[in-house]
Amino acid sequence: MKLPPYESQLLPEGHYRFKVSEEPEVRKNENGKIYIIFKFIASDGVVTRQYRDVFAPWEERYRDLLLALGAKRDEKGKISLTQDPIGKVFEADIVHVIDPKDPTKTRDKIANIMVFDDVPISEKSEDDDIPF
């Protein structure tokens, strides 16, 4: 199935599953501040489309995204991705916020990022009865 290109319309607010579709792109703005563009395939179970969001390294949601994509903390507490994020899946919400550059516009952004795990945690496994 071919997905439509990145669209300018907002994704409806709600809960989505996101899959990283491309390598993140690091850019600098005119003030020299770094930001990272992530491209995803977003699905709420009904609608599936390409989506992108911009993250700043100092945002808490960027930290949550890295952890959801399998990032690890080093001995100094710094979080960094040690593996390719393409294909990684997580769940989050889409919320609508007022655009800080133009208060007459609304934009969508990823919030409440959670780690997606295909394997449910069972309360008791076969290994529980092994005596060692």
List keywords for this structure.
132 residues, mainly beta, six-stranded antiparallel β-sheet, two-stranded antiparallel ribbon, disordered C terminus
Number of strands: 8
Number of H/I helices = 1
Q: Which of globular, elongated, flat, extended, rod-shaped describes the shape?
A: globular
Multimeric organization: single chain
Poorly predicted tracts of residues: 118-132
- Secondary structure class reads mainly beta
Q: Main sheet?
A: 6 strands, antiparallel
Give helix and strand order, one letter per element, not per position: EEEEHEEEE
Overall mean pLDDT score?
83
Q: How helix-rich are the residues, as a percent range?
A: under 10%
Radius of gyration: 18 Å
N-end to C-end Cα span: 49 Å
Strand content: 35-45%
Task: Explain what the structure shows.
With 132 residues, the chain is mostly beta strands. It is 7% helix and 44% strand. The protein is built from one helix and eight strands, in the order E-E-E-E-H-E-E-E-E. It has one helix at residues 60-68; strands spanning 14-20, 25-28, 34-43, 48-55, 72-73, 79-80, 89-99, 102-115. Strands 1, 2, 3, 4, 7 and 8 form a six-stranded antiparallel beta sheet that branches. The protein has a two-stranded antiparallel ribbon with strand order 5-6. It is globular, with a radius of gyration of 18 Å.
